[in-house]
Amino acid sequence: MSERIAVLAGGHSPEREVSLRSGHRVATALEARGYDAFLLDPAEAPLVETLSETAAGCCYVALHGKDGEDGTVQRVLELLGLEYTGTRPFACHIAFDKILAKEALHAGGVRTPAWVTIQAPALRDLAAGPILQKVAERIGLPVVVKPSRAGSAMGISFVERESDLPSAVMNALSFSDAVVVERKIAGTEVAAGMVADASDPLPLVEIVPKSGVFDYAARYTPGTTEYYAPARVGDEVMASCRDEATKTFRALSIRDVGRADMIVDAEGAPWVIDVNVSPGMTDTSLLPMAAAAAGVDLPELCDRVVQLPLARRQPG
Amino acid sequence: MAEFNVDPYASLYARRTSGMAASEVRALFAVASRPDVVSLAGGMPYVQALPTEHVLEVVESVLAERADVALQYGGGQGSPVLRERVAMLMSEEGLGVDAEDVVVTTGAQQALDLIGKVLIDPGDEIVVEAPSYVGALSAFSAYEPRFVQIELDEDGMIVERLEEALVRGVRPKFVYTVPNFHNPAGVTMSPTRREQLVTLCREARIPIVEDNPYGLLRFEGEHQPTLRSLDPGNVIYLGTVSKVFSPGVRVGWAVAEPGVLQRLILAKEAADLCGSNFTMLVTERYLTGDAWRTNLTRLVETYRSRRDAMLMALLEHFPADARWTRPAGGFYVWVTLPSYFDTRSMLAAAVERRVAYVPGTAFYADGSGKERMRLAFCYPPEERIEEGVRRLGELLRDEEALYRSLSR
Predict the structure, then answer these.
(1) CB-based contact (8 Å) between B30 and chain A?
(2) Residue A289: closest C-alpha in chain B
(3) Residue A1 — pLDDT band, cuts 50, 70, 90?
(4) A15 and B27 in contact by Cβ < 8 A?
(5) B104 and B77 Cβ atoms separated by less than 8 Å
């Protein structure tokens, strides 16, 4: 009898639509490999009851954003004693929160752009707005303002002039109760995906958005961004990107599957700007492209990922 | 080193699709459909109020008696009996129309598209109100016009501004307006402005496209004369049964002079051959007799009471320096906040607090309107409206605190 796999997708995060697209593709791919896969949207069906009624053997986590990537759903699955794809709860918690992730990357010796953190209560309750003037002094301009807990580039702004900082901070705070303001690194954007083995990332994918900015529209409107896999960088740069990616996955204890996004600066040095514990699996997503460049199609990619939790199950 | 071809069509798309992109706002609306979110966003008619028994009878009688017609192709202009009925509906607002001058469309939305197709060449100027119905902006956009926005106030489009634009050399193909219970602004064009607009456009030989989906949803006061009744030769009039019956039947129409009408019919046939005879006949039967009037009266009462609930809640929960319109009908209240608000970036926080609205920028061709929002009172019951407005008011206070802190 074929293995029952619940593909968790949808949910309540702003990335709901993206996640549903990921989930449909994963479920179809798993079916093509002979699994009895079904989509489970926690926003539509009660998670715990459905998992027990359907007697799923394990879960493929294709949820994005809050709940799916911050350890929430992973804690539920661990309590249920169900194996699942991806990173464990505490590591998810850290990887999804840019405030914690930046600290962990820094401590792990990963090259990541200089940053400061501003929390909403500091502004609201401590009236600490004037600290914004320190931001440019501390890390220089231009900067990228990011919500601490969000994905798909939602709520992100690029700021060149100090006068634009307040509105960028307010924009990001709409998605989260804190923002990370990061020095903007100019260069080539690349993504390093990983399946199973942190020491051997998939081929790098180079990202060239036609608008110049890899924002939500550029990510999810086919044809608005050009992708090159493997990336058009020299062997030396390739090697240092792979090193940086491996260090990233280890520093954050990323398990099974993950993606590190980087900018390669003019000197060829990679800077890690984001980490994903549940990388997108849509038709415009980076991990499937990286796998394809390694000769691995989507069904095989999903199969490899889902084999990992299946192998972890205790016999009996 | 291969380029990864995500979309093999990428180099083939027509220029008119350049504005069609994935958006964060759209993604947020996908989350806003969860039941614990009070949605003041969508303008969904309250179809639960329809007399379902009666509708069922109507559908049954159409299938029992007219199946040969109902299930067959029809003419491009639309069912003649329905066009007669639609003419009757327009007379409710004092507009006399010959059924021969009507083309039935798939919702008035298709009429907007057909008008764009028939009248707009790329680069043509067209006049729209600021703000304007987002669906009209999208429909016209495909034909690559240059939008000229004319501001409106409590009395509708400020005709003097249009006159100034014409003096500046603007030569629009047409002027698009929603004179009654404007979407999104909620305002109604005053009789004086109607006269002014019709006269100006007649003299300048610029046709008016009058979009009147909400006219029969009047809560108080007298019906205003339609622009078409003031100058039939120079006004293309659009109507729909979406608000008085059901948006699900997709029955709208355009009324126009013979030359335009013929092109609209040909364009309609090119687009989809013909509308649905089935829903046209269902609509015709529904609008026969008096049951629809009784139901409309009830609907108007429901909407009025929901509007009142929203206006009360706004007064109680919104900041003192916020302004909003007081619609005498229709679906929408239009809110203007102090200029430091950005309702587009605020939407994620609103959805997080379980309330949704439409950011003002959606309704402008030039991306302005960031300090405005459209609130729809048509769908949620009074207590949900009150709760939604309360949640929004709380969010606005927190946003204001953030802003005050950041601007110190």
Answers:
(1) yes
(2) B4
(3) low
(4) yes
(5) yes
Asked whether the beta carbons of residue A154 and residue B24 sit closer than 8 angstroms, the reply is yes
Judged by a CB distance cut-off of 8 A, whether residue B398 touches chain A is: yes
Backbone phi and psi for residue B132, each to the nearest 5 degrees, phi listed first: -135, 160
Of the candidates B4, B23, B401, which has its C-beta nearest A228's C-beta? B4
B407 touches chain A (CB under 8 A): yes
What distance in Å separates the CA atoms of residue B356 and residue B32, rounded to the nearest whole number? Answer: 6
Task: Spell out which residues of chain B touch residue A166, defining contact as CB-CB under 8 Å.
Answer: 403, 406-407
Residues of B in contact with A181 (CB under 8 A): none
Q: Which long-range contacts (CB under 8 A, 24 or more apart) does A289-292 make?
A: A289/A205, A289/A227, A289/A229, A289/B4, A289/B6, A290/A191, A290/A192, A290/A193, A290/A202, A290/A203, A290/A204, A290/A205, A290/A229, A291/A193, A291/A195, A291/A202, A292/A229, A292/B4
Tell me how many degrees the CA angle A149-A153-A158 measures, rounded to the nearest 5. 105
**Cβ-contact A21, A53 below 8 angstroms:** no
Cα nearest neighbour of A163 on chain B: B407
In single-letter form, the type of residue at position A276 comes to N
**Residues of chain B contacting residue A18, judged by C-beta atoms under 8 Å apart:** 27
Q: Is B31–A293 a contact, with Cβ atoms under 8 angstroms apart? A: no
Centre a 10 Å sphere on the Cβ of residue B314 and count the other Cβ atoms it contains: 21
The answer to whether A154 contacts B347, with C-beta atoms less than 8 Å apart, is: no
Average pLDDT, stretch B232-260? Answer: 97
Cα–Cα dist B147/B159, whole Å: 16
CB contact under 8 A, B4 and A169: no
H/E run at residue B147? strand B146-153
Q: Is the pLDDT of residue B2 over 80?
A: no
Residue B23, chain A, CB below 8 Å: the answer is yes
**Chain B residue at shortest CA distance from A224:** B10
Please give, one letter per residue, the 3-state secondary structure of chain A. CCCEEEEECCCCCCCHHHHHHHHHHHHHHHHHCCCEEEEECCCCCCHHHHHHHHCCCEEEECCCCCCCCCCHHHHHHHHHCCCECCCCHHHHHHHHCHHHHHHHHHHCCCCCCCEEEEEHHHHHCCCCHHHHHHHHHHHCCCEEEEECCCCCCCCCEEECCHHHHHHHHHHHHCCCCEEEEEECCCCEEEEEEEECCCCCCCCCEEEEECCCCCCHHHHHCCCCEEEEECCCCCHHHHHHHHHHHHHHHHHCCCCCEEEEEEEECCCCCEEEEEEECCCCCCCCCHHHHHHHHCCCCHHHHHHHHHHHHHHHCCCC
The tokens describing A109, both together, are 């010796």
Fill in the amino acid letter for B88. M
Nearest by CB: A227 against B6, B20, B345: B6
Give the three-state DSSP class for B148. Answer: strand
Q: In this predicted complex, what is the ipTM?
A: 0.86
Q: Which of A275, A311, A270 lies closest to A194, judged by CA?
A: A275
> Hey, are the CB atoms on B349 and A124 less than 8 Å from each other?
no
CA-based nearest distance B138→chain A, Å: 17
pLDDT of B158 > 80? The answer is: yes
Give me the mean pLDDT over the A260-273 stretch.
Answer: 96
This model's pTM is above 0.95: no
Q: Average pLDDT over chain B, rounded to whole?
A: 95
